[in-house]
Design goal:
heterotrimer, A alpha/beta (328), B mainly alpha (701), C alpha/beta (262), A: 328 residues, alpha/beta, Rossmann fold, 2 domains, 7-stranded parallel β-sheet, 5-stranded parallel β-sheet, 10 helices, 28% strand, elongated, C: 262 residues, 9-stranded mixed β-sheet, two-stranded antiparallel sheet, 7 helices, 13 strands, globular
């Protein structure tokens, strides 16, 4: 089996959760192979990260270059192509960076590419068997990928459990000289931070989160009433923002905010993975949805199959009674 | 010269009287003719509009609405005043012309008005002038002191119109005064030389003559001639000034009423002069620039009297949406005045939406028809809104919230995007199937009656119970009926009114074929929008009825009996759906049905029947997200509460949806509920006595 | 600016119910309605807006069969200048890389300053744009949600985590994959479609394109879908059964127990 590499996403000297998840994925491909970490960056941060991931890997390849101080997928790709041995298997988290990096990387490495996998079912005669989702997460698919000339595999963040830290004590190998000079045709300029808006949902321990099931903008008021009674904040899924019912700062998800509440009420939310990707810390998840087959019920702790527009006012009433506030 | 002579004989001013007044006539008439000709220019350049058919029906309208001032009393105070002023003007017209001609032909008397008839006429018109004058005074006081809300001009629509209104009212008052001073001074003068001239007792001229009792003859002559001059100048000034403002309605009202739309309930074709099968050749659909309007639509802009009744009753306006029908017209009129000036060249036209109109303004209309119902000049609004929407659709400028349902209507025949094969799923719930089997009609399965369900009633969970209730009613009355099921597409009623004409035609053609294949003799529907579409937008269909009409008929025939509603202390009120009530004038049947339920207590909302307040819109309005301060539905529910009701009965699925939502959003849950007429009747229907006897007989065996 | 937009015809997600078929190995395909992949529609709108600002041409292309022409026509009705269908028996069964290979040959036949794709389609792969760029050796950016034209460069915004936007400058020619929400696409009505009903759409196959048949088609695919399935439900939520009131009370209890009441 070829070498398995794991791309480490990191920020401010700290490796992201996906690093450990990808190690799990690598083990699922070949339990006998200890993967190699790829850490690209510059300066002190990169050293800190390399050091922190050693317990999970046999080797940690450091790819240091000033041009890589900001994670620019175009430059990263060039660096990887120069540093990686032929027929490597490379695991990358399927996020905004992985989407940017991997398809082109697979072409340049002349290997296969399989995106956004949620499960690995092993290798059979050079075909890797994986599980993916299609149609916006509405259905699952078994797929297989020819890895005989290597592969780039994008792994869904949160799709695999984080590998418990082992005592591997990986060797840090400085592959920076392999990089050489990078051609810059896409230059990073700046990051515009999303407006925090009036309410910072990341700071609330209870969130009443609304989705398309609220049916129309005016019904958001029903959720706001509940949130007020609970002392919580209203957050939402992407379709709510696209429909302009709430502002972007309320969005929970891979393209929105990441939240770590204690209690999360998913109201009329189907449970698309991009939304769930924004919920961390394993909160107590209560789902209310008219559709008993909604994927959210797979991940919720408690579910109520009911019309959210009818259930929420009932819940609000109960909360208000408890608080001693007379119902309106 | 001594004594009072006709002003034509004036000889001690610069110009002899005859010549002076003749000159005034000529200038006045020529100027007026020129102004009117210039005002007609945009009408020549506008689109075709065939309004020359059915002269008798049109004359009937003139009799009722123009001469009979039929709509004016809907606002009683202003209405009565206007009737008085209008009557006054009609009566005074002959007198005014006589007066004008006298300045050129001194002894002129209008043919037929000599002797006793002439005298009587003068008495009547003395009073007429007095009444008109008093009305002017009252009108000015009303405008300036009491300021009725409907005359207000919100800042975004420009400056207040009060100054102009007062100016015009003032000029009319001056006209009346000038006439009265002339008559009074003449009568006073004649009295000096022992000639009598009768003036109507206590009329304005009469009162003025009293004031002249000690005025010298010479002075009276001066007053007389001056009054005459003032009259002539004011008359012609008004004549020429009127086409520059809202007073143009004095001239155009006769035409706007004569040419008013005769066919109710339907929408004009894209182009009157292009048959449907040639529409693909039309380069541009709808109204994008001013010349895309038809000449009648432009005549409407001229005819608006700025009375504000339309905007006063407009539900979109009440909800704080950017639309007020009055200003739709006034802005277009101002545009016409600016771009087709009387003095100057007609200048280039720009697209109207984005300049005088905003997109939100055009999408805000629910086509409820309240504006058209109020307008005393029969100005039409719905066709203009639809034409403007056609223009927006044609240029692709459609809100994203509307694009989804339109796309779903195209692919799936319903705005929800749900599968066609599920359209009749409401007939297949276990409980319902025990009561009632509903046939699905096609080329092989026929029935007497088609129940046209339409999209919202078929697919919306709440509305499906209305479909079931309607089916049970039809079934219990022994009607042989069925539904089209998967072959039924949306009636397309809203699609058409949202400007997507071609999609409407596709839906219509599909449905007509399906209906013809089903071989039915009658169509019944529980959806007033479908009712209106099938009755007015579609052609060559069997007769269509709304379920409320069917129930009323069956009640009269004795084939339905309604048992008492449990005594629950509730007060019911009936909300007239726009497309059943106002557009199709079905007001009494639903009420008859409700009143036939023993023990049911019913109250009437202030705004009911033709003044019913739109719930917020049918069809695509469920998807559109307007900018508004309040929801129409919430306003309506409060009206019901104000009338003392706690149950609203309606006969339209869109009203039901909007009102149910409004009850929640308006915080009236538990205090107000809503039920559909069909559901109510279904709950109260008792098995006719004959069947019960059979059952007893069977048990006895 | 010469702009090419690569589009795909997919089952419309809002007007279909994606369900497993009776055999349990594919989705139920009877009665599916199709439309243009939503992100591709945003890409075409963006291309039209850029063209209307700076001048040029917008070309739309798809790899598929005759069925896919309806989507090309719709985009012509929307305002695209020309449309091409890339069809050949040899192309059938291509995986994403195969599609990108075919598109690459098409691009090399013409001259385009800017190539747009939607960020992802019904299979959620989000790959064709990036692959195409690598094959052409053009710079690439994904998840683009804003574009400003500045002579021979573009200033683009990418959607990154937290709702933030990463601003970069990218050289032309380049490939961009477009995220939904970048603009508000104009409406295309029935009338528009009818007006382009007879506009010719050129079809290119292996005869017109320089495609190496060994690199496309089912035979060359390195990633294959085996089947669709619905997973056996593992640990899922405890569904409360009871009256609405009882459920609400239980939920309140649970919230309180988890420290959610302040």
């Amino acid at each position: 089996m070829s070498r398995i590499f794991v791309c480490i996403a990191h920020r401010n000297g700290v490796a992201e959760d996906t690093a450990a998840e990808l190690v799990s994925a690598a083990r699922a491909i070949d339990p006998s192979v200890a993967p190699t970490a790829l850490v690209a960056g510059h300066g002190r941060d990169i050293d800190t990260v390399c050091e922190s991931v050693r317990p999970l890997f046999a080797e940690v390849w450091k790819l240091g270059n000033e041009a890589l101080s900001y994670p620019n997928a175009e430059l990263m790709r060039q660096a990887l192509v120069r540093a990686l041995p032929p027929q490597s298997i490379v695991l990358v988290p399927h996020d905004h960076f992985g989407i940017d990096l991997s398809p082109g990387l697979a072409v340049k490495l002349n290997s296969a590419y399989v995106p956004d996998i949620v499960a690995i079912e092993g290798v059979e005669q050079n075909w890797l068997k994986v599980v993916r989702q299609e149609f916006g997460g509405q259905i699952y698919a078994h797929a297989r990928c020819d890895v005989s000339s290597g592969a780039v595999i994008n792994v869904r963040p949160g799709g695999f459990k984080a590998e418990a830290a082992t005592a591997l004590n990986g060797v840090i190998v400085d592959k920076s000289p392999d990089i050489g000079t990078l051609t810059v045709r896409r230059r990073y300029l700046e990051t515009i931070v999303a407006e925090s808006g009036a309410v910072d949902i990341t700071k609330h321990s209870v969130l009443v989160s609304v989705g398309r099931g609220m049916q129309e903008k005016d019904n958001i008021a029903i959720a706001e009433e509940l949130a007020e009674a609970l002392g919580a904040a209203v957050s939402c899924s992407r379709p709510v923002v696209d429909a302009r019912w709430l502002e972007k700062s309320r969005q929970v998800g891979s393209s929105g905010k990441t939240v770590k509440p204690k209690v999360y009420l998913a109201c009329g939310i189907s449970g698309a993975f991009q939304h769930l990707a924004g919920i961390k810390g394993n909160p107590f998840l209560i789902a209310i949805n008219k559709n008993p087959k909604a994927p959210i019920f797979q991940v919720a702790d408690v579910g109520i199959v009911d019309d959210v527009l009818e259930f929420l006012p009932e819940l609000t009433k109960k909360v208000q009674e408890l608080r001693g506030v007379s119902a309106k | 010269m001594v004594g009072i002579y006709s002003p034509a004989l004036l000889s001690d001013w610069l110009v002899p009287g005859k010549s002076l007044f003749l000159a005034i006539h000529i200038i006045g008439i020529v100027l007026f003719a020129y102004i009117v000709a210039r005002r007609l220019v945009p009408l020549y350049r506008a689109q075709a509009d065939p309004r020359f058919d059915q002269p008798l029906a049109r004359l009937k309208n003139v009799g009722k609405y123009w001469f009979g001032q039929w709509k004016h009393p809907r606002y009683p105070f202003a209405g009565v005043m206007h009737i008085l002023i209008f009557a006054g003007f009609l009566l005074l017209a002959t007198r005014a012309f006589t007066l004008l001609i006298v300045g050129v032909s001194p002894n002129f008397v209008m043919p037929g008005l000599s002797g006793k008839t002439g005298h009587l006429y003068n008495v009547v018109t003395d009073y007429a002038a007095t009444v008109v004058f008093l009305c002017m005074v009252v009108a000015v006081v009303r405008r300036v002191v009491f300021k009725p809300a409907r005359y207000d001009v919100p800042a975004r629509f420009g400056k207040s119109h009060t100054a102009d209104a007062v100016f015009l009212l003032g000029l009319i008052a001056v006209l009346m005064l000038a006439d009265s001073f002339f008559a009074a001074s003449e009568a006073a003068g004649r009295a000096r030389i022992d000639e009598s001239m009768q003036l109507a007792f206590l009329s304005l001229p009469w009162l003025l003559r009293v004031g002249f009792s000690s005025t010298s003859l010479a002075a009276l002559w001066v007053i007389n001639v001056t009054a005459y001059l003032v009259h002539a100048v004011t008359f012609y000034f008004l004549l020429c000034y009127r086409p520059f403002g809202i007073q143009f309605h004095v001239e155009t009202s006769l035409f706007s009423v004569y040419f008013a739309k005769l066919e109710r309930g339907t929408v004009k074709p894209v182009r009157w002069d292009v048959p449907e099968d040639h529409l693909d050749q039309v380069k541009s659909f709808g109204v994008k620039k001013f010349e895309d309007f038809t000449w009648k639509q432009i005549l409407d802009f001229y005819s608006c009297a700025d009375c504000g009744r339309c905007a006063d009753k407009c539900p979109a306006n009440a909800a704080g949406r950017p639309l007020a029908p009055r200003f739709l017209t006034i802005k277009a009129r101002d545009y016409a005045f600016e771009h087709y000036p009387v003095f100057g060249k007609a200048n280039n036209s720009n697209p109207l939406v984005g300049t005088i109109y905003s997109e939100d303004e055009i999408w805000s209309c629910t086509t409820c028809g309240a504006c058209e119902e109020e307008c005393p000049l029969l100005v039409e609004y719905i066709d203009k809104i639809v034409d403007l929407r056609r223009g927006l659709i044609d240029s692709g400028t459609v809100p994203q919230s509307l694009q989804k349902p339109l796309k779903a209507l195209e692919s799936r025949g319903n705005p929800y995007g749900k599968m066609e094969k599920k359209r009749a799923d409401w007939t297949r719930t276990a409980e319902f199937q025990q009561d009632c089997t509903v046939k699905v009609l096609d080329q092989k399965t026929h029935a007497d009656v088609l129940y046209f369900v339409d999209s919202v009633t078929s697919y919306d969970n709440r509305m499906q119970s209305v479909a079931r209730a309607t089916s049970r009613i039809l079934s219990k009355t022994g009607t042989d009926f069925g539904v089209l099921g998967p072959t039924e597409a949306d009636s397309g009623h809203e699609v058409r009114r949202f400007g997507e004409e071609m999609l409407f035609q596709a839906l219509r053609d599909h449905n007509v074929e399906a209906i013809q294949n089903a071989g039915v003799k009658r169509i019944v529907t529980s959806d007033p929008h479908a009712y209106n579409a099938l009755k007015h937008d579609y052609r060559d269909l069997p007769p269509v009825e709304h379920i409320s009409q069917v129930i009323a008929k069956e009640l009269k025939a004795g084939s339905i009996q309604l048992g008492p509603r449990e005594v629950d202390g509730k007060f019911y009120t009936y909300h007239d759906p726009c497309y059943l009530g106002r557009h199709n004038q079905v007001y009494e049947d639903p009420r008859t049905v409700l009143d036939a339920i023993p023990g049911l207590k019913r109250v009437e909302m202030k705004r009911s029947r033709d003044r019913s307040f739109c719930c917020g819109g049918g069809g695509l309005m469920l998807f559109y997200e307007p900018k508004e301060e309040q929801r129409m539905g919430v306003l309506r529910v409060r009206m019901a509460a104000d009338a003392g009701a706690n149950v609203i009965v309606t006969a339209c699925p869109f009203c039901m949806t909007n009102i149910e939502d409004a009850i929640k959003v308006g915080g009236l849950e538990g205090q107000m509920s809503v039920i559909d007429l069909a559901e109510l009747v279904d709950q109260c229907m008792v098995v006719p006595v004959r069947e019960a006897e059979h059952e007893i007989a069977a048990v006895g065996d | 600016m010469e702009i090419l937009v690569c589009v795909k015809r997919v089952p419309d997600t809002s007007e279909n119910e994606i369900e497993l078929n009776a055999a349990g190995n594919d989705i139920e395909r009877d009665e599916l309605v199709y439309s243009i992949n939503e992100p591709d529609n945003y890409a075409v709108e963006e291309a039209l807006q850029i063209r209307d600002r700076v001048g040029g041409n917008v070309t739309v292309v798809t790899v598929g069969s005759e069925d896919d022409e309806e989507v090309l026509r719709r985009q012509l009705a929307m305002g695209a200048n020309q449309a091409f269908l890339l069809y050949d028996e040899a192309f059938e069964g291509s995986d994403g890389r195969g599609i990108a290979t075919i598109l690459k040959e098409f691009v090399l036949k013409g001259h385009y300053d800017l190539i747009l794709t939607g960020v992802q389609a019904d299979d959620g792969a989000a790959q064709v744009g990036g692959m195409l760029a690598a094959m052409l050796d053009y710079p690439f950016a994904s998840l683009v949600n804003s574009i400003e034209v500045d002579s021979s460069k573009l200033r683009i915004g990418r959607e990154i985590e937290g709702g933030n936007r990463e601003i970069s400058e990218i050289d032309l020619p380049c490939v961009l994959s477009i995220q939904t929400g970048i603009n508000e696409p104009r409406y295309v009505g029935m009338r528009g479609i009818r007006q382009v009903a007879s506009v010719p759409i050129a079809t290119f196959g292996t005869g017109e394109l320089n495609v190496d048949e060994a690199l496309v088609g089912a035979g060359a695919a390195k990633v294959k879908r085996v089947d669709y399935f619905v997973p056996v439900l593992g640990k899922s939520a405890e569904i409360l059964s009871g009256s609405r009131e009882a459920n609400a009370e239980k939920v309140l209890e649970l919230i309180a127990a988890k420290g959610g009441l302040k």
